[in-house]
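Workshop exercise sheet. Pairs work together: one partner reads the sequence aloud, the other fills in the structure field after running the prediction. Swap roles for the next sheet.
Pair: D.N. / O.F.
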Amino acid sequence: MRFILLLLCPLFLLNAQNKIELNTLHSNFALKSSRELYKKELNEKIKRVSSAGLSSSAEKAWVDMFKDISLACLENEIVYSILKTGFENFDKRGLTFQRALLETGFAIYPDSFKTEIINIYNTTSDPMLFAYTAQIQRSYEKSISLVAILNKLYQKFPGYAEDNILRQFEYDLVNDSVSLRSLLPPIEELLNHSFEKNATIIYSLFSKNREYPGLTVIKAPDGSFVKDESGEIFSVPQMGVSVSNLPAYVRGGNTPQGIFSIVGWYVSPTDEIGPTPCVLTRIPFEKPPSTFFHNHNKYKTWNIEDYKNLLPGSWKNYAPMYQSYYCGKMGRGLIVMHGSVDDLTFYKDKPYYPMTPTKGCLVTKELWDENTGDVIESDQAKLFNAFISTGNTNGYLVVLDIIDDNRGVTLDDIKKYLKTE
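Structure field:
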């Protein structure tokens, strides 16, 4: 959503009586008048910030503007001119500006700045910019040799193995043409693993192509999967795609694979996220180990062995399961599970419509009445109600890509790995 830096509300003890009723969900931000006001204010902000010029002191305002532009998928002459100015001044700007510009430029005008992006790829000495531009360049030219990119990686960064971003980047390149089926350890072992005694476990399982929805299922502390009113295993579609659809190991990229700690819930004050309660998750390094591991950690400071010990045996050496650990180490955070009051007209031409992208969070579908501001449909309410029905709001979230196909994950993709009752 647009303002991902969340002002967290106090957490409350939960029980089944905290169930969310749809008729209680209302958002003034969903009203047509609010949509129109937001668009007006966004365009005024863009004109104000851009007309003030680009300087070192203005970089922060421009970065904030880039975020708004990318999440609104805003295309017009002013936006194009802003991005062009950014690329023309690229070498004079700081890394935060450069990264935000690349992400936004590629998200909004993927084919308009090829020359500039390829030049950055050839000249940058920053690991994240290199990973950014190499991934983007491959989207331009699928036939580009992976060996050529790997050789450039090894030439430019001889110590790449010590860099969290470049190490994951290399893994992706080396395994690019390898099917997930041949790489994945036994999925049934992961789905039937307890992780921690009496913990609630949420699984968000995806296609490698994150432009398609994943599926979320929930395991109660007794090891059974939560079921819906019909007796079927509860599930809701969920998106884990960022506006840039870049890999998780770059800032603002897709939701990382791996383990997240579930530490409760909260209601966000952010209009675009809306009034439906969010499941509050944390990744390693974002909070002390005692918080992440619910006081079951062996080491007082962050040690990858504590994280590794959460995993079942065959998964301890599966590199993608460590994305959340290394993403946390490089500074990512504030990745939660939430709903959306975003204006869906921004995304009507996207393959995930009527769902929405984020800056790395997991988001479910919510539909709102623009005349009343009342909710019409809320998968987030369903998810929240299933979550609190387990009786324990502490546990772990597991995010994992399980299929290569260009389609959404289905319940049948998951059920075949579950123990039969």
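Discussion prompt: The longest helix spans residues 32-51. What would you look at next?
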